[in-house]
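re: ur question from earlier - yeah i can do the single chain one, its not a big deal. heres the input i used so u can compare w yours
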Amino acid sequence: MTNVYSFDGILVFGLLFICTCAYFKKVPRLNSWLLSEKRGVWGVFYKAAIIGTRLHVAVAMSCLAMAFYVIFLK
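and the output i got, formated as tokens:
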């Protein structure tokens, strides 16, 4: 079990958040509802979706590396 208050827990949470927002960007109904704001608190979802779509290779490699770390090394 990964603790959210540790460094690796924060990394896991951040990667899952970026991947989820990038998925929301591909779904039209969720895109217009959740990712319409580009500023403020709701802008965090938009910015995470942009990071997930532009850096999809790096995010995917990071997810694989973190999964290997959590399953086998921790």
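The mean pLDDT is 89. not sure if urs matches, ping me
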